[in-house]
Structures are given as structure tokens and as C-alpha cells.
Amino acid sequence: MPYRYHDDIATADIAFEAWGATLEELFKTAADAETIRCTETVPCFLENTALDLLLFDFLGELIFHKDAGRLLLRPKELSLTEEDGAWELAAELCGEAIDASRHPLNVDVKAVTLHRFSLEQEPDGTWRAMVVLDI
To answer: In the β-sheet with 40-48, what is the strand arrangement from edge to edge?
Structure first.
């Protein structure tokens, strides 16, 4: 399991740490939700000059689709490129409409926070992120 929850970081929020051998793997891991079936697809294109803020924006995009379209999405395909000092993310998100019988949303994620938010490359080359979600 390339992520773990931390219940000692925030009391009214959810904190988790995700990691991956590549940036793409880390972004996918941070956005993964295994109980979501792929019945709908949505394209996603984001750009940011800061790599960590691109991850922040990406997770925020998933929350936006949950709130605005009642869609639970996860990345099916994802690529990251750096060009002229800016990072670009291109992804195909797939998922399904929220179904209370299949998706017991015990808590509602409202936003990604910058509290303790980090993205860094480890000495062994793997990538690690710490994320706190406002619920």
C-alpha cells in the first residue's frame, strides 16, 4: 500500500502520506480510491510553476468534481512534463457518480490544505508527499 493515514497530525482533518517511485506514480497514489468503478471519464489539464502546488491543484480538482458534478474520480492515465519552468499535468480521470449504497461517505472532504503540505524526493529517488485534507 503506497500510502498511510496519520491520525496524530490533525484532529479535525485527515492527514495522509503517499509515495511512489516516480512523480506520476506518486500523483496517482495520492488520488487513488480503489472502490471507484470507471464508468465515466473526464480530461484534466493543469499547469503550475511549483511542482508541489501542482499536486495541490490536482487533488483540489478531484474535490471540485465531487462537489460540482457528484463524481468520484481517480486517475486512469497521468503524465507530467516540465517545460519552460512550468510543470504540466495531463490526465484522464475515470470514475462514477456518487452512490450512497456503494460509497459510504462518512466524512466529506472539503479542501486540500497547505498545513504540513509537502512534496519531496527521497535520497533513494522515490517521491513522498504529506497531505492534510479539511473535512
So the answer is: 40-48, 86-97, 71-83
